[in-house]
Fold:
Amino acid sequence: MRAPALLVLSGLALGAAACAGVEPAPPAASPLSAPATAPAPIENYDWLFFEEGDEASLGFGLDESDDVWLDLDCRRGSGRLVLVAPAGPDAPRLVRLEAGGERAAYRAEVEASELHEGVFLIADAPTADPVFQRFRALGWMTIEQEGEAHAMVPHPGSAARIERFFAFCG
Structure:
């Protein structure tokens, strides 16, 4: 997704995320159970970092496209994230993440999508949540979409974008 499109999503997300919250982590039998070592990166998919003024975005997807699995947005030093994930129209209103055994399920607001058949799930979370701290340390995490876990792994040389994003967000 291009930087301007991410920032537009950020603007939509910031308003909707104020009402979102976190739910208890899914049970241990969740499809989010991740292997102890990082899976291989997916060809052409990577963590992409964009910064403009006091806003930044870290998205996992296909560069120069709207094919993004998860977008994390923040304001400089806020310590808060807005999560934006595409979903089918009947998907549960949760963004489920896992990193190194840390799990979280964030209640999400729904925004209609003009980019795909479905919706965007928009949730709010603190950068200090264990799942994000573990992601920051590992450099990869999984997202559950339609009952399947998808690993979002950086390619060699791009993991530094993750640390840069979290340093920006606070």
Summary: The longest strand covers residues 45-52. The chain has a mean pLDDT of 84.
